[in-house]
């Protein structure tokens, strides 16, 4: 429940409206629960604005996120709100039509394919909101160069918001982003011996 | 991305399945962004399970949460998934049919009316997921007694998950809850003089 009033008025030559409408890079990091769920909750707001939304799910998971995926697909297909395009690495990125050659491409290669598509979409201004789910891990693991990501995000044209989730967001990304929330675990049922359950964890 | 394996196996006489399916009380607190958005993101998972969802929005706001509200109403009305009932204090709780007497009831009285309805719904097992949005403030302000809330939650029948959002969740509630995430603000555009904008803050 932010108060709605900025703490400072910067001397940047922009009007309040111009400043207000600057597209944002947002990061949800930390080891607590809620990083992705908050990003998908944000997609509800973007949907309500009628914005095209691109979701890029960077870490394979069987039933993880299936609730959000089904819900956002129903919303995207409804008569109201914006469109939703869901790209999932686990099933092979949808734009990769070629059959896998000698053995599957590695997880790392697939992640890079995903990032290349994000770059193409940013250049084409395909979406108004990008959810790069679990993308921070790829930067942390060094699979994708954080400096390149920052350069691409800094130079992106038009009005495109980007939200990146995942533990261990690199310091350079945190430094660059406009909005960063750290989800800290205070307690989790797994600490008390309770496994994840449907409706809650997926 | 929790690992899916509990850290300990408690000696509580329950089977893994029984333990896994225990209904949860979840708290999203802290001063960072994402407390409510993560709760509504969780509602997407519940919706996908076909669960009836009750949202109780305890703090009045004009355009705040309107994205989530519209999206969840479209989902609730769709042929798939669960139902969504959205109760909003700002417009008067929908179940209060009587006209306001001498002057409007106070904000505090309306909040208590909301809590009374939550109690009735818990007793009747009306929903599978309750989103008590911004409810933590009411406890912090002392409008509603935290010990009563804990007692009601502890004794709730059946399989009802409850997620409570808001800054300043009292220690007793944190102590009682099964899952607590603290959303910490690392940085926010308002710190850089940028006001909230549509699609992001509402």
UniProtKB/TrEMBL annotation, chains A, B:
Highest rank taxon of the organism: Bacteria
EC number: 2.5.1.17
PANTHER family hit by this protein: CORRINOID ADENOSYLTRANSFERASE
Database matches in SUPFAM superfamilies: P-loop containing nucleoside triphosphate hydrolases (SSF52540)
Protein name: Cob(I)yrinic acid a,c-diamide adenosyltransferase
Main EC class the enzyme belongs to: transferase
Pfam family, one: CobA_CobO_BtuR
Keywords: Transferase
InterPro entries hit by this protein: CblAdoTrfase_CobA (IPR003724), P-loop_NTPase (IPR027417)
Molecular-function GO terms, alphabetical: corrinoid adenosyltransferase activity
